[in-house]
């Protein structure tokens, strides 16, 4: 059966009432959590994981995917009306979106964000439909050495490119690797780092770590910041629509944002943050309305929001074909696959084609739902911002505690969750990113097993990692990712020019 045939079969499944209902729940919850600052899709999926153990895997993954891309859109609402991004990927939207809202053009900003999300989401899902099966066939050629090199690339690139510094990224990664080492070694049967606690013999469940780092850590951090004055939410005084000139200026930005977001989202450590900032920079360079930038240029909202949502489909390419998450939420989705005894990778398309193609078909449907949900109901989403923070985060703590306890009725799991939550609080306090920790925890078993298998095949010869062209290329890419943050410093030393905030300064001007 060809791609079109598989996709049509996927639509036949995705259009059943059960899956339509779960997709609608997913995009609704996703939009709601995207609107609330600090509560992103990663936290939400982590909270829901223990409650969906008995779900149909396809339905659960459709709902989780809806939460993911719904959250990507919802962050634009707070960026525009509150100048506070609900998601880190929506930071670039605040630059022009909030300025538009202050100028009484919040409706146009929200409209270009919603329509741009739909256009870019649909285009990127179309690319996913045809590229993912091809990459899955290529991935069948991977050997253990190649898979180990791929995990090294993921570790290094996420550590180097996420967070305020490489040191902070490394600290986060090693926290995750430490959690992953706890328990019985699956190959040798040796007990590792259990400290005599019997309940740790099976290791720490990824849900416990995820809920601890994301939910408990975030709740504790927000509690420590509650004494700060709350910002005022701007009202939507105009209709949520665009005039002819705004349409004319938005659609090229949507297309460019989609073309930037999809490939960069598929790269290790790509996520959605890098493509949104890149899209903002591209639109600013190409704009004919230079005087509007900083005062409410609509391209500055259209491009980043399109890149934001296109990056989601890009993230799914390595996740489905290689089992490689390129963002924190993707890492939680990988954990969801594993909970249902599914291993994303090249064989997933062969062993579970119904699941894969139903999931892909649901993305098209979810994008339509998202558009219908957000344009007419924007005033409802704005009301969510009025929920008191103490009430909201208290509910999250209760919900997380019940969910973790219900997994194995274990009090030890609950204690571990809160201990890890304290670690998560200090990570936020000292601006250490959480993503590398989750990635390290989830990918460690794959990296360890593939490393040992490669050495078994080569009879202990480490040169196997550099004699295979594919593994060598991946390791060189990891080295490049490690050196990339130092490029501005190197340029400074070579040219003698100053570097400020990642920008080269020439005399009195700046080059972005």
UniProtKB/TrEMBL annotation:
Organism: Chloroflexus aurantiacus (strain ATCC 29366 / DSM 635 / J-10-fl)
Membrane spanning stretches: 20-49, 61-82, 108-135, 147-180, 200-223, 315-340, 355-375, 387-405, 434-451, 471-491
Signal peptide: none
Domain of life per record: Bacteria
Keywords: Membrane, Transmembrane, Transmembrane helix
InterPro entries assigned: DUF112_TM
Domain DUF112: from-to ranges: 20-439
Protein name: DUF112 domain-containing protein
Pfam families tied to this protein: TctA (PF01970)
